[in-house]
Structure to design on (527 residues):
């Protein structure tokens, strides 16, 4: 009987939460990242005895504070921890009152005194978004891209009295893709994998298995904080260096230059490996060669003769446009909403209100980002609109392109009406009567989204195999035409809509495509 009881106890005690050692934690920091680390640590059975975060901003609490307050976890909102180099007595007493065994700093912009860092039994651990000792400092992700690193990653380290110099507990890395931006790298790897790593690090400490690996001085770098004032583009550099500078500031703080006397910020950079498409020249201050406004974006040139392309431009008033529309910006007039579209607008207004909880009333002039929204709120907005507006699929860029509520609704309505689609393809057909049907066939080369005659104008006869008669004359593609087609296909793959689309949306369209043809085949109604 006792043996059976011990087996039952053993089975019960080996559950995920009850078997592992658990700690009393103080979370110090802020942001959605901090909130997710908090949620996952609680889920794993650790006890968060106190959350120390920043004061509310414009009446809106930090996400970490919101999650902790919802759970009834004690929350402390200190504007600072010390004055004139000394820890504030009341702050220190409030911290010590929670009795933490470990401090966890997932993302913290405040300076935390060393007597607080060293206070718990296990000390403090910090998340840093670089592979230390490389890129110490607050702009680590920016500099990872600016310097053209091939690998990115993060470190969880033990806090000491230096700046990101403490012993390493664990590190993770990933490959950097050619057109990764700060946002892309953060959302794809640093955010989701960083949360898992912080939870893993805490558990290693709880189990007494956490290493302390001294950081080597070899390869150590420290770079300054990147702000808007020092993000200006210096043009006398190679295309790759320009590309890394632009994407290393995308979305924050944004690499900028002066065009026609106005500060313009560049987003969505990619190296142009295909031939330069035709476009309208655009003079840029400091650039030796004008840019080209093309149908896919703004082409820029490095001092090595190579090119890059940026997709989006933002002006000083906050308005963002596709770079391809630089010369036509502002020509679109507002559209009148139908009754059904008004309902969609009201639904979206409720979604905005839920995200911008600090804004009393969502008005036409309400700006999504100036009201406190972050890049993670963009993801939430797009997903909630898809769920609540009949599957309407927006891209993150749609939010950045129309940050004011009125402009955003106009963009949504145009998307609903299909007005943001490209013009209908113009095709010349040859018509033939076959088996009491009129069959239409294109006879030109299809290159870069258009039907066109062969470069040298040559044609050849296509023959009806049933009677040997000539059906029509078809364009005879030359080597020049083939080169144009290959270059256009390469450019579309690297810079087109499909390449920018997220994997889920590509999958949705592929499924829709397959389903359509299966249905057509089943009905024997293939056109």
């Amino acid at each position: 009987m006792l043996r059976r009881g011990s087996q039952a106890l053993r089975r019960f005690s080996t559950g995920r939460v009850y078997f592992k050692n658990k700690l009393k934690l103080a979370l110090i920091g802020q942001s959605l990242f901090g909130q997710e680390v908090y949620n996952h640590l609680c889920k794993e059975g650790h006890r968060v005895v106190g959350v120390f975060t920043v004061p509310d901003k414009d009446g809106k609490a930090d996400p970490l504070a919101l999650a902790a307050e919802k759970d009834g976890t004690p929350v402390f909102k200190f504007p600072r921890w010390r004055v004139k180099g000394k820890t504030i007595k009341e702050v220190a007493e409030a911290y010590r009152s929670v009795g933490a065994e470990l401090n966890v700093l997932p993302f913290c912009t405040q300076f935390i005194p060393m007597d607080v860092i060293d206070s718990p039994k296990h000390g403090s651990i910090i998340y840093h978004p670089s592979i230390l000792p490389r890129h110490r400092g607050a702009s680590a992700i920016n500099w990872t891209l600016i310097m053209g690193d091939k690998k990115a990653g993060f470190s969880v380290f033990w806090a000491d009295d230096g700046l990101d110099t403490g012993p390493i507990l664990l590190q993770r890395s990933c490959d950097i893709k050619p057109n990764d931006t700060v946002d892309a790298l953060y959302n794809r790897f640093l955010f989701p994998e960083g949360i898992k790593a912080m939870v893993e690090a805490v558990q290693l400490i709880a189990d007494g298995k956490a290493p302390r690996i001294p950081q080597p001085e070899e390869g150590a770098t420290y770079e300054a904080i990147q702000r808007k004032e020092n993000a200006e583009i210096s043009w006398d550099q190679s295309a790759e260096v320009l590309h890394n500078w632009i994407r290393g500031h995308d979305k924050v703080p944004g690499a900028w230059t002066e065009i026609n006397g106005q500060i313009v910020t560049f987003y969505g950079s990619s190296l142009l490996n295909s031939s330069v498409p035709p476009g309208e020249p655009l003079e840029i201050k400091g650039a030796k060669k004008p840019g080209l406004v093309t149908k896919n974006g703004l082409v820029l040139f490095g001092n090595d003769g190579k090119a890059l392309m940026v997709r989006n431009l933002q002006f000083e008033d906050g308005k963002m446009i596709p770079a391809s529309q630089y010369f036509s910006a502002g020509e679109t007039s507002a559209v009148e909403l139908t009754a059904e579209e008004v309902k969609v607008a009201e639904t979206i207004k409720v979604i905005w209100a839920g995200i911008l909880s600090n804004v009393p009333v969502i008005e036409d002039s309400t700006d999504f980002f100036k009201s406190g929204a972050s890049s993670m709120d963009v993801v939430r907005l797009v997903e909630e609109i898809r769920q609540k507006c009949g599957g309407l699929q927006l891209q993150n860029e749609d939010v950045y392109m129309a940050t004011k509520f009125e402009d955003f609704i106009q963009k949504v309505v145009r998307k609903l009406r299909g007005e943001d689609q490209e013009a209908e393809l113009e095709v010349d057909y040859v018509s033939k009567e076959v088996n009491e049907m009129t069959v239409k066939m294109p006879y030109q080369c299809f290159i870069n989204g258009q039907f066109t005659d062969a470069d040298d104008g040559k044609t050849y006869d296509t023959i009806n195999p049933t009677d040997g008669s000539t059906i029509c004359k078809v364009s005879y593609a030359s080597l020049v035409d083939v080169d144009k087609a290959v270059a256009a296909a390469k450019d579309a793959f690297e810079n087109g809509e499909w390449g920018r689309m997220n994997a889920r949306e590509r999958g949705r369209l592929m499924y829709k495509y397959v389903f359509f043809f299966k249905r057509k085949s089943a009905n024997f109604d293939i056109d």
